């Protein structure tokens, strides 16, 4: 499944502004205590490492910041704060710490997921941070620096009223975010249905993960596929309206996207990530967002 696009690509009280809440949680429960809320607690502060900072090309560090393209609809990895403009999430905190290790600030710019790699290679963004699954197609387009690993998770309405089975969703309506590995996954499953003389799966593609989640909450679609942290987060924020279906599968690494001609910068990003793993900051961020199951120990360029 991971030969073509993106995987398990995301806290306070839900996804601010997301259709998940606006369409489905007409009567929200009380806010969870801060200590039990994903993302609650102080952000990690990473000290600059002069040796690592020296590895950053002058053209990138000259303005003191790294411009980062991100699809801010993917809670809990990258999504908008209740202020409607600040991008937050575990991806955001991790890369902010990576930038700090390199003596720089990270400036996150919201973008369409499918446009980010092109934007990095054109110079519009200096890095792409948006839960990109590393695969051969993406490594052919850009340098990919591994920092996390996760697989795909299915989510249904509570009680699975549509009777969805992962290996037999023929004739059902399934929601996915455009340009993700989940599109390839569900498309292949639909072909298996039709090859066997069964009805095709209706693949309902949305530009943002928030809308895909909302389609399941509202009953428009029978289930959705997303990266595991995204599916699990949607369930915890749904006020009992969503369930995980079966288990995560096909785990693959996430990667930071760096321009194809910026190998030295990719290596600096890798080394900064490794430094965060070594000093414990990496684990602190993942624990804070309750996504530590995807932790890795050996980041690499184009693994």
Describe the fold and architecture:
The chain is α/β, with parallel strands linked by helices and 303 residues long. The protein folds into 2 domains: 19-27 and 34-150 and 253-294, Periplasmic binding protein-like II (D-Maltodextrin-Binding Protein, domain 2), CATH 3.40.190; 152-250, Periplasmic binding protein-like II (D-Maltodextrin-Binding Protein, domain 2, 3-Layer(aba) Sandwich), CATH 3.40.190. Helices cover 32% and strands 24% of the residues. It is built from 11 helices and 11 strands. An 8-stranded mixed beta sheet has the order 5-1-6-11-7-10-8-9, sandwiched between helices. It has a 3-stranded antiparallel beta sheet with strand order 2-3-4, with helices on one face. Helix 4 packs across helix 10 and helix 4 runs antiparallel to helix 11 (281-288). The longest helix has 17 residues, at 263-279. The relative contact order is 0.22. Mean pLDDT is 87; it is low at 1-36.
């Amino acid at each position: 499944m991971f030969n073509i696009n993106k995987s398990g690509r995301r806290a306070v009280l839900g996804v601010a502004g997301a259709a998940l809440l606006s369409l489905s949680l007409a009567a929200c429960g009380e806010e969870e205590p801060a200590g039990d809320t994903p993302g609650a607690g102080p952000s990690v502060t990473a000290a600059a490492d002069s040796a690592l900072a020296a590895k950053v090309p002058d053209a990138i560090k000259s303005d003191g910041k790294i411009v980062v393209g991100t699809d801010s609809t993917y809670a809990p990895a990258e999504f908008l704060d209740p202020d409607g403009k600040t991008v937050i999430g575990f991806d955001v905190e991790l890369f902010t710490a990576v930038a700090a290790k390199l003596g720089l600030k990270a400036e996150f710019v919201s973008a369409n997921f499918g446009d980010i790699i092109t934007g990095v290679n054109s110079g519009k963004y200096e890095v792409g941070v948006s839960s990109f699954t590393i695969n051969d197609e993406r490594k052919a387009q850009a340098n990919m620096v591994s920092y996390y690993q996760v697989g795909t998770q299915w989510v249904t309405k509570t009680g699975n009223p549509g009777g969805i089975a992962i290996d037999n969703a023929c004739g059902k309506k399934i929601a996915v975010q455009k340009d993700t590995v989940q599109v390839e996954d569900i498309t292949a499953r639909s072909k298996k249905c039709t090859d066997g003389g069964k009805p095709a799966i209706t693949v309902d593609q949305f530009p943002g993960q928030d809308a895909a989640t909302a389609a399941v909450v509202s009953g428009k679609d029978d289930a959705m596929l997303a990266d595991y942290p995204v599916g699990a987060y949607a369930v915890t924020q749904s006020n009992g309206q969503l369930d995980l279906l079966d288990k995560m599968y096909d785990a693959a690494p996430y990667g930071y996207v760096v321009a194809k001609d910026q190998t030295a910068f990719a290596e600096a990003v890798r080394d900064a990530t490794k430094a965060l793993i070594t000093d414990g900051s990496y684990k602190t961020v993942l624990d804070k967002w309750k996504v530590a199951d995807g932790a890795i120990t050996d980041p690499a360029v184009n693994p």
